[in-house]
Every structure is written in structure tokens, then in C-alpha cells.
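Reading group handout, session on sequence-to-structure problems. Before we discuss, look at one worked example. The prompt was deliberately terse, the way you'd type it at a terminal:

> structure tRNA (uracil-O(2)-)-methyltransferase

The input record follows.
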Amino acid sequence: MGPAGTAAVRDADGAALPHGFWAAVRVWLEKPQVANRRLCGAAVHAEGMVPLGEGGEAPPAPAAAGGGAGREERGGAEELGRLWREVRGQLSLPLPPLRPWGGPSELRAVLRTLLPRGRQPGPPATELVLQDVCNGTVTFLPLEENTEGRYLLKKCNIYQIQLTHIKDEEWSVSVVAPFPEDWFSDGIAYPKLAWLGNELLSKLAKWSVEQKPSEFKSTLSLISVAKYSKVYQDLKEKYKEMVKVWPEVTDPEKFVYEDVAIATYLLILWEEERKEKGLTKKQSFVDLGCGNGLLVHILNNEGHSGRGIDVRRRKIWDMYGPETHLEESTIMPGDSHLFPDTDWLIGNHSDELTPWIPVIAARSSYSCRYFVLPCCFFDFHGKYSRRQSKKTQYREYLDFVAQVGSVCGFHVEEDCLRIPSTKRVSLIGKSRTYTPTESALIDKQITQFINNRRTCAVITCDRRVGFNHKDHCDDVREEAGSELPENETETAGTTWMPGFQPREKVEQIRNCASLPREFVDDVVLNVANLLLNSSPQKSCSNMQDGNTNAWNQGESLSLKEVAEHLNKETLKRLKSECGGLQTLLKNNHQVFEVLNGRVHIRDWRKEKPSSKTKPEVKRRLSAEAFKTRLCWFFIHHPDGCSLPSESCPYAHGTEELRQSQIIKKKKHIQ
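And the output record:
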């Protein structure tokens, strides 16, 4: 075997290795797509221990044990033992140390299939992976199936990962292979040898000492990854034209492909549910807070009857056609918004409705199920208030929504979706924990839980303004019902929480764009002068109009330091806008650059065009906007603009101003 690469690893706390190495190997076995972007995942078919006899040969397989043996350790191990004996006989070269050495004469075997990604993905690749814990090796043996259904060893793609103890807390991780680079075939399912030695090795070394267990489950843990990959590529191709005609101001690629991914997940989840229950009819659904309605459009097109409801109509709704059922309506949690004939309720970034969806599902019918993808943090009564500092806010909120589902009598399952969003954990209620005869008891439990949450919120609010209440919400749970006003108790049968505030029909613009121009200009000038007058000044040479001048770049300050220099009225006005001071400064990107919480004066000589934008789009946008606005630096900076007039995209004086082509187009359309 020849080495493909070696990386040194130092275990700083003396606890990560070798345990961390096996955790890193587990990532590569189960989630290879995090390292190899050409893969969409791996399907693990069987896992268990395979025995080795003296000299590394496997003894005859023992007789099958009676009873319902689990796939991983009994049935799986027996099948893997048979497979290993077949493959071991085909090895014409030694694979040290695949033999017992000072430890148990067993190897842990995993049979997996690697799944390439892409519109026209390559064929899946099957591997038998052997882990020798005693000797710190993991050997990957590629297999191919012959016409008789037997696996044959593909010797051209064999490689082994080794962990070696050097001294003290120093270790090395190596990749070795018995054959040269040109024996490694496709570079997709079977990575090139150079990639293994450079990319994979560095990732394994990093993962081995990180010791940062994820708060969340692996992606797509409840459905088939292979099936997801195929369906997703088909739907992505089918609905890719939506990106070109997207009429909303939101990013089309993000929102289109995110909804395609969510639709893919639901379609597979529902297909597997039909198989489990022996159903032929496709499930019905209602999407509460459906937004742009694309998810509803896709599910309707794929044969599922259902509708979407949102408080505000979107422009894109008119493009879907009559087959897509969308309603503009306000949803108030109560008896008037139940869905007894619906199989599934969907809450995709449903904001204030998120915690209510398990409740609505539980009270709609005993057979109603739900799927929620929480994003913004809402309780039953308003914004969610944190209660546990040891968890991240996101993890705490997910646990709260899961708790709501449990209180409502659901077996709550969690899964992580593959979508372009930081909030991608879904919670699913497919089955109940109680019998239909216990529905009244569960309904009473739900009511008490909602009232307790409301009472605790009131007490928390009162504490903030100085009232003296008991320290724990548990102490007042028995009094929750009596603390509701009389008129609210009477209406509890129709509206479950009087005072519930749905989102506003007309969306408020709170991104500093609606602030008066004079106010914004004043803040920009104050902050710029603050940076320019801070010492020491950062200056650099500038050639303009034939003269060499020192152009003042000013100093960088943190957002906190900038805020401390602004008056209270200005800050109060900015705080009423989403993002506040930071948003205003980022909006004025001609003047400022905000990086990692620090504010800088922008130097346009250092600007490079974004690599994310296509060249033809860059040229068009540049031509349309060129010289359509005055240059702030030409007017306000003590040294003028750092660029000569012909290079600056902004006008150096009113005589250079030209009318925006974008405005002309809008006038023409009108």
C-alpha cells in the first residue's frame, strides 16, 4: 500500500482521540455529502460485527439464532459475515492490519451505497466498509453485483484510513491505497486519490478533535435519501422556469428551490405513509400561512388535493392558474378554523401560527396529522420569551413546539431538511399517543397548557415592571383558569385565545427604507464624520486630477461605539426599524462597509464585482445605474472621491447626472 497523504492531529485536551476519530469516520460513512459535494448522501443497508479466525480468515458462519433478530447486530451481521467471506477470498493482496492484533478477532462491517447528485447522476456505488477499532483502520472495498446477484470486489478503488499514535497527545491520520491514481475511476462516487489525500484527510483530522455534537438529527433521517435525490432532481427540472418569471421581490432561486425541496420531502413522506397504511388515495392538506403559495402549487400539481391560506395575497398567485387553490383569509385559532376532513396541516415558516398548528390538528379530527417548519419564534400569545440559557434560542424554541405536539397527544418526530435556510428542522406529528375515547381528556390538557403559557407570560411581563409574584410558573398553574377575565372565559369555546394577534394584512416596511431622506442623510453624515475624525487616521495615496493626495480612510469602529455617539432620539427611531443602525448603514453601501460588527468607510478603489452575479447581469446593471446618483464622497468627503470622475459609478456634480434606464422602463410599462 502506498500513502496518499498524512495529517498530524494534536489532541489538546487529551480526550478527543481516538474516540473523535471514530466519530469523524461515522460522518464520512453516513453523511459523505458534507465532504464530497458530488454526492447527495449514502444509504446504509446493513451494519454489524463480522468474526475473523486465525490468520485473518473468517470461520464458518454460525447457525441463525432463533427469534426476531435485529438487522444491525444479528441478521445484518450474519449477512455481512457471508458477504465478507466472499470478498475476503477475492483479495489477492494483504490489507494490514485486517487481522486480530492484541484485541478481539472481530471487525465492524458496514454495507453502504453512495448516491451521486445531479440532474443526470452517475450510478450508485456500493461499498463494504471494515472498521478495525483495535488497530485504528477503516478499509473501503468497492463492490459490483454480477448477473447472479453476487457481489464482486472492484480492486481499482480500494483505500484505507489509518489512525496512528505518535506520542503523548500527538496522532496522525493517513489515507493509503494499494493502487496508483489512475486506478481510481470516476472521481464522483469513488473520489480521486489526490482528493482523498488532500480534502478528505483534512476534514477527518478537523472533525476528530472538534467534539461539537450537533443539536439536530442528520438530514432526511425519516425518509429514503436515494428516493429524495431522484424526486428532487425531477421536481427541480420541472419547476425551474418559476425562477425566470418570479414576480416577488424575494430571491427566486432560494424560494423556488426551497419549496421544491419541502415538497419533495412531503411527497416521499406521504408516499411511505400510504404504503404503511395500505392507502391508495393521496393525502389531502391545508397549508396555513402559505405565503407565495408555491408549495401548494407543487403539491396540487403532483396529485394532492389541498389549499393554502394566507392573510395577504401575493402577486404570484395569479400565475398559478385555477388548479392551485389559494385563499386570502385571516386564521384565528378557534372552533371556526378546524379542518375535520383534512389529512395533513402544513406550517412552513408560519410565524405566529406555528405553535397553534399541533393544536388545530389535534382538535380537527383524530386522524389529522401535521408538519411544521418553525422559523420566527412565537408563543401562543405573541413573541416567544426565552427560559433556558443553556440552549440556543433555536433549539429551545424547537423543544417548545415539540412539547406542544406532545401535549396535544402526538408522537412528535424531528427531521432536518436539505434547504437553503438556517432554520431547516421540521417537526412531524403522524400518530397519536392516546385512543379516540380519551380525546376529551387530551382536549382539557391542551386548554390547561395554553392557559398556563399565557399566565406565565403575564407574570414574566409583570416581573419586568416590578410586581412581586411567585418565582415559578408551576406555583400558579392551578390558578390559571381563574385569572382569565370573565368575558374571555365565555368565548373560549369559539376563540381559543382572545387577543391573539395575527400578522397584519398590509406588510409593514421596517427596513429603514421608509425613513425620511433628511433623517437618513443626517445619520450618514454624522457617522462618516465620526469615522473620519477618529484617530489614528488611515490614509493612502490617491491620484486625482493629476495631483497626489493623502486620501483619509478614517478609522473603523464597532456598531456599539457608533451607537454611543448618536443621540437617544435617533437611536429610538432606528430601533423601531428591523435591523436598526446596522440596517441603515448597510443600506448606504456607497459610503459604508459593515463587516463582523465593525463599520468602515468604503474605499471604492478596492471594490471587486461579486462572483455570484453572472457577467452579463453585472454589465447590464452597471450600465443602467451608471451616473444616476450623486457621489457622496465628491460632495462630503474632505479629500473628495478616491476615484477619478471617469471611473466612479456615481456623478461628480449635477452636470454628470443621467436619468435611470430602470425608471424609464417603469414609465413605459405604465
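Points for discussion. First: The chain has three domains: 2-210, 225-437, 517-669. Second: The two ends are 73 Å apart (CA to CA).
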